[in-house]
Specification:
Layout: E1 5-7, H1 18-30, E2 44-55, H2 68-74, E3 91-93, E4 103-106, E5 110-116, E6 129-137, H3 138-148, E7 151-158, H4 202-213, H5 227-239, H6 251-262, H7 280-292, H8 306-318, H9 335-370, H10 385-396, H11 411-423, H12 440-461
Parallel strand pairs: 2-6, 3-5
Antiparallel strand pairs: 1-2, 2-7, 3-6, 4-5, 4-7
């Protein structure tokens, strides 16, 4: 059935007595017909092909094109409409034939007002017009856009000057399943995510799952950063001695949470107790562990010596386990002291790993600022500086000839990407979906390898090498 445009208010002409026609004419001069503008325009029905867009935010887990900058360009920056109106629920982009301020009612979706344009927002050949709805910020907005897809709707257009209904759109009635974001995930490391109180997004979900695995979050994982989630984060921060806010996941808190998660399955030290009857191997383990924690300075000889007893006692005192050397258990490692040592040992290792993660993040940010960081997905047909960077990274790894670097993603680049993916285990066959294109997994792999290379350089020669 072809798309059509039908006025809501049809003028019906019937023969009537002259005196009645005159009366109607007089009335029409005094009271305009409801909904009709002064220039005669009136509301009408119209068929639409509808898509949606969103406003990307920095540090999302997922971007439809692989990065913040690329998604901003795709969504026209996502800050304001073409007429300067800041984005808000109820804004729509329409063809230039629709004046700014025109209201469009879309059954089952909402009532929108035109404040934006777009290169692809045109009048289509089949009689329908394109509309692009703004559906929110960040990951939640992106999830809503992905779920919305492309829809065909017959709506009502209210031109400027006509009697327009009040704008209304309820985002809660439009699905935003967080699972839709997974194929677009470019960074699932908590150090790179910044969920905050009030957010309902995939970043919060990842944080909840991490806190749940570590035993701090005991409720259902919902992706909503509410009071319970904030309390759980606060408990984690307190346990690790961090003075970070619990109203959001800061970079430092994210680094510690990521480090703690990576250490979750680590083997625990001190299987046996330590006293005057313990084995040499057990005593050696206690000596190494207490030296790492800063309490023991003697030889690793496996002897239950005065030096080892004193080290154990000092640890017990500082952690409130004993008061004096005559207290029961002083200078010996039993179940309570062993649990405390493991806890302090784990915290220190988490702190070391978190510092490494923060250093890696700093390197990644520096590379991004220099333009040496892939920030979007690429495929055959892409071109520009990002393709040049991709070709250079592949050449550095032996998958692409340096003399062929040209910034154009053609067959040679596609083959090189596929070889890299096979070598790194990202794909198992060149016929596999995603083979030869730079998607989330390939971009993460290349970025991680470059970060590690620079991290080793920094560790050996200092930060000035960047």
């Amino acid at each position: 059935m072809p798309f059509t445009q039908t006025p809501l208010y049809r003028k019906v002409h019937r023969k009537m007595p002259l005196h009645v026609q005159a009366a109607v004419l007089v009335a029409a001069c005094i009271v305009p017909f409801a909904g009709i503008t002064a220039d005669g325009s009136e509301p009408y029905e119209k068929d639409f092909v509808i898509t949606a867009y969103y406003s990307p935010l920095p540090d999302q887990c997922c971007y439809v094109l692989g990065g913040y900058t690329a998604d901003r360009i795709l969504n026209g920056n996502g800050i304001a409409g073409a007429d300067g109106t800041p984005v808000y629920p109820g804004m729509v982009a329409a063809p230039s034939s629709y004046a700014f301020g025109t209201t469009v009612q879309l059954p089952g979706i909402g009532i929108f007002q035109v404040h934006d344009r777009g290169g692809a927002i045109t009048e289509l050949e089949n009689g329908a017009d394109r509309l692009d709805l703004w559906l929110g910020h960040g990951e939640e907005g992106l999830a809503r856009v992905l779920a919305f897809g492309v829809q065909r709707v017959r709506g009502t257009v209210y031109p400027n000057g006509s009697q327009q209904p009040a704008q209304h759109v309820d985002f809660s009635t439009l699905p935003s399943p967080l699972e839709r974001l997974i194929p677009y995930m470019v960074d699932d490391e908590l150090i790179s995510l910044t969920p905050k109180v009030g957010d309902s997004n995939y970043s919060t979900r990842l944080m909840q799952e991490s806190l749940q695995k570590l035993g701090y979050f005991t409720h259902a994982v919902t992706g909503l950063f509410g009071e319970v989630t904030q309390q759980s984060l606060h408990a984690f921060l307190k346990d690790f001695g961090l003075q970070e806010t619990s109203a959001e996941l800061t970079e430092k808190a994210g680094a510690f949470l990521e480090a703690a998660l990576r250490r979750f399955d680590a083997t625990q030290p001190l299987v046996d107790f330590v006293d005057d009857g313990s084995a040499v191997a057990t005593n050696q383990e206690a000596q190494r562990l207490l030296r790492f924690l800063g309490y023991y300075r003697g030889r690793t000889d496996g002897q239950y010596s005065e030096g080892l007893r004193t080290a154990i006692f000092h640890f017990q005192q500082e952690n409130g386990l004993v008061g004096s050397v005559v207290d029961p258990g002083a200078g010996r490692i039993g179940p309570i002291t062993r649990t405390a040592i493991r806890k302090v040992w784990n915290r220190k290792l988490v702190s070391v790993h978190a510092d490494n993660l923060l250093a890696m993040k700093r390197i990644e940010q520096t590379l991004a600022e220099r333009g040496d960081h892939l920030d979007r997905f690429l495929a055959e047909g892409s071109n520009g500086t990002q393709v040049t960077l991709l070709q250079t990274l592949l050449a550095d790894r032996g998958f692409f000839p340096y003399e062929k670097i040209n910034g154009n993603f053609g067959t040679l680049t596609q083959e090189a990407v596929a070889k890299y993916q096979l070598d790194r285990g990202i794909i198992t066959s060149k016929t596999e979906k995603g083979a030869g294109g730079v998607g989330p997994d390939t971009m993460k792999s290349l970025t991680y390898e470059e970060n590690v290379k620079m991290y080793r350089l920094v560790r050996g020669e200092g930060w000035d090498t960047l």
